[in-house]
């Protein structure tokens, strides 16, 4: 709920929890993109720092085994990529043009597009963060259900295009189940040691 509470579009989210001693902890939350537009990258950075610290205290400066990391990054989707801007035009812009140009906000568009972790073909109301109607939110749930059935894909770093991944789970849904099993196994190992 909190990560979708984009200021001015959707309401902030509030909840409370109580620990075993009855102490109340409150959470006042808005969209995480306000503080970190790529929280996955921040999490990986923090974990890497912790792993380096752990390694240096134990065995020195050997390479970190990144296979120890389990990362699940679910994007909120992105509008179909529109090549709205090009370097030839942008090289002539001043500060104002980067902020507002032809009814668009280039600096914000570039910032958000550059950190988008999921590339799909959302169009119309589904691609707009400012349409929080019940009808549109239900439609987004339907889109999510369809995405679960799609083949697992990853970005080809040379082309920037998503390509099906061979040799792993065949659908996103199966990949999520596999990921949950790995998390469960890791938790059991940690509790046992």
From TrEMBL:
Domain PNPLA intervals: 1-44
PROSITE patterns: PNPLA (PS51635)
Keyword Lipid metabolism part of the UniProt annotation: yes
Keyword match Zinc: no
Signal peptide: none
Keywords: Lipid degradation, Lipid metabolism
Superkingdom as given in the UniProt entry: Eukaryota
SUPFAM superfamilies: FabD/lysophospholipase-like (SSF52151)
Family: Belongs to the patatin family.
Name the UniProt record assigns to this protein: Patatin-like protein 3
């Amino acid at each position: 709920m909190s990560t979708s509470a984009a200021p001015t579009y959707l309401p902030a989210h509030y909840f409370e929890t109580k620990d075993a001693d009855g102490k109340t902890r409150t959470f006042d939350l808005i969209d995480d993109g306000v503080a970190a537009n790529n929280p996955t990258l921040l999490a990986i950075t923090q974990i890497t720092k912790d792993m380096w610290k752990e390694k240096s205290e134990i065995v020195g400066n050997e390479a970190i085994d990144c296979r120890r990391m389990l990362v699940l990054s679910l994007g909120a989707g992105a509008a179909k990529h529109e090549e709205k801007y090009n370097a030839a035009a942008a090289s002539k812009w001043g500060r104002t043009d980067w902020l507002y140009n032809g009814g668009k906000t280039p600096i914000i568009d570039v910032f958000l597009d550059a950190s988008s972790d999921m590339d799909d073909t959302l169009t119309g109301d589904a691609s707009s963060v400012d349409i929080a109607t019940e009808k549109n939110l239900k439609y987004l749930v339907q889109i999510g259900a369809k995405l679960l059935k799609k083949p697992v894909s990853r970005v080809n770093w040379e082309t920037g295009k998503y390509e099906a991944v061979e040799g792993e789970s065949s659908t996103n849904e199966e990949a999520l189940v596999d990921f949950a099993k790995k998390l469960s196994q890791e938790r059991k190992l940690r509790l046992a040691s």
